[in-house]
Amino acid sequence: MSTVFPTPRLTNPAGFGRVAVLMGGTSAEREVSLASGGNVLDALRARGVDAHAVDGIPALVAALVEKKFDRVFNILHGNKGGGEDGVLQGLCEALGVPVTGSGVLGSALAMDKIRTKQVWLALGLPTPRYVRLAKGAKVQDAARELGLPVIVKPACEGSSVGITRVFDEAGLDAAVELATRYPGELLVEQLVTGGEYTVGVLGDVALPSIRIVPAGEYYDYHAKYQAEDTQYLCPGLAGDDEAAIRRLALAAFRAAGCRGWGRVDVMRDAAGNNWLLEVNTAPGMTSHSLVPKAAREMGLSFEDLCWRVLETSLGDGEGGHA
After folding, report:
1. In angstroms, what CA-CA distances link 182 with 142, 185, 218?
2. Inter-residue contact 58 to 91 (CB < 8 Å)
């Protein structure tokens, strides 16, 4: 596992051409995406990149049809109007426009937590036990099969949207009611008690892990994007434990067909076992976001990180000149 970044492929910002920074959209994560996108836009412009904000996929389509952009920095979050479910990637591929991050397969697979788990389990990678809650199925049966406590969540949302931790049967129906407000299937997952970690991936490098210590009981939406008292310990582990969680995250990222950059979320139980939760293929880039914190630990400024992410849109024949 590499722990050193390769030399940048481009040094002249003109080599990127005209860049669309795609943000906003219509998913449940619109506000987070707008915050991320504004930061990315400022960083790229500060480095001399000809970057422009585009809000949502329909606006991008209109601009690409008119050939206004040479490539896309995707910082949309979520699905159904977000840019992490493979739809945007298929569009860009069909139009021959490079886009940052994972392609159609990796994006679509990682957005679906159930299918991601199926791939990981097939490869022997550790992930908490789960039950797919089919339409009409009783959540009580799933909870009994797994054993309480459990987590009930939409299978295809991010940013802790629609998630409930349930410790007794009395809370199950309300958890399902919340999760069904969002499209797609539901997932009932065994709750792992322990430390919350995340590992960013940039190219072939797994970034230092981050241990997340919220002031409250859980790392929920408020703790992620609003609270100022959440602690981020980076690196989150040391020695062999740190190396192991980074190897696992990189293996999980690749197994899901992902490439370019992303973030893998992991729980670590009291016995020191790591459990994979999900992959984010367009992680947040807000003031509270995790990938920038880990990149900074390896000496990459926010501007450097945005440049490197933009380089993930370069094809094999690009970037060989200054």
Report:
1. 20, 9, 21
2. no
- At residue 57, the pLDDT reads 95
What is the rounded CA–CA span in Å between residue 212 and residue 253? 20
Residues 230, 151, single domain; the answer is no
Do 116 and 263 belong to one domain? yes
Q: Could you give the residue ranges of the DSSP H alpha helices within the chain?
A: 30-46, 57-65, 87-95, 104-111, 113-122, 139-146, 172-179, 221-225, 239-255, 290-297, 302-311
> pLDDT at position 264, please?
98
Residue 82: give the domain boundaries: 13-101
Alpha-carbon distance of 225 to 30, in angstroms, equals 13
- Give the domain CATH number at 20: 3.40.50.20
pLDDT interval class at 286 (50, 70, 90)? confident
What band does 253 get if pLDDT is binned at 50, 70 and 90? very high
Catalytic residues, which ones? 29, 159, 225, 263, 265, 278, 280, 284
- My answer on whether 289 and 231 are in the same domain is yes
Q: Count of domains in the chain?
A: 3
Q: In whole numbers, what is the pLDDT of the chain averaged over residues?
A: 89
In a domain, residue 71? The reply is yes
Q: How confident is the model at residue 320 (pLDDT cuts 50, 70, 90)?
A: low
Contact between 78 and 159 (Cβ < 8 Å):
yes
Assess whether 52 and 160 both reside in one domain: no
Q: Which range in 17-31, 241-255, 283-297 is most confidently predicted, on average pLDDT? A: 241-255
